[in-house]
Design goal:
11 helices; mainly alpha; 196 residues
Length: 196
């Protein structure tokens, strides 16, 4: 992988959330719940900070202490969910990349558990926040100084495919058997599997 791609990968891992202190889990969850509730009623452009703070049960000062924008709230919550996912992957028998069947299945479970959040993002044309997060995390797990350009783009395709399958499964009502879908994903990415 060339230096330009690596610099881009590293710069993409920083968000505006890093500029402010992290909100406590309870504040973050309250604000996310309130934002989802409001987004289910109107577009983001029609929501004021005062309205969100009131709905979340926090002050405007608390909002401005922890968040720089509504998108920042979503980015922080994705980081929170990603950290929880990684901890679960790294505990017990689930080690490494999403590429293992049990980790793909865990991804289905996380999408299902966070269905309201994911569907809200998808309905509001913000699903790419999730896809970019998945790409970034998979690259963080897979990248080494020896990563070829082909492996880099295969990793991007893999993470994008996971996002597409998880999202479609969720929007279609979670009817398909996740074991069959997991096998399909593994079959599609046999080349990537040989690396591990």
């Amino acid at each position: 992988m060339n230096d330009e791609k690596m610099a881009q990968k590293n710069s993409n891992t920083k968000s505006s959330a890093e500029l402010k202190p992290s909100a406590s889990d309870s504040v973050l969850q309250s604000v996310v719940r309130a934002l989802i509730e409001l987004l289910n009623k109107k577009p983001m452009s029609g929501i004021s900070v005062q309205e969100l703070a009131h709905c979340a049960g926090i002050s405007r000062m608390t909002y401005y202490r922890y968040f720089s924008s509504f998108e920042d709230i979503l980015i922080q919550y994705l980081a929170y969910l990603t950290d929880r996912f990684k901890k679960e992957v790294l505990s017990g028998v689930r080690f490494g990349s999403f590429i293992r069947a049990e980790n793909i299945e865990l991804g289905f479970r996380y999408f299902a558990e966070n269905r309201e959040f994911v569907l809200c993002l998808l309905r509001n044309n913000m699903g790419d926040l999730i896809r970019q997060n998945m790409i970034r995390e998979e690259l963080n797990l897979s990248y080494t100084s020896q990563t070829s350009s082909e492996e880099y783009y295969l990793t991007v395709a893999y993470a994008s495919t996971l996002f597409g399958v998880y999202s479609k499964w969720l929007t279609d009502g979670m009817k398909e058997d996740t074991e069959k879908l997991t096998k399909m994903i593994l079959d599609l990415f046999q080349a990537k599997l040989r690396r591990y």
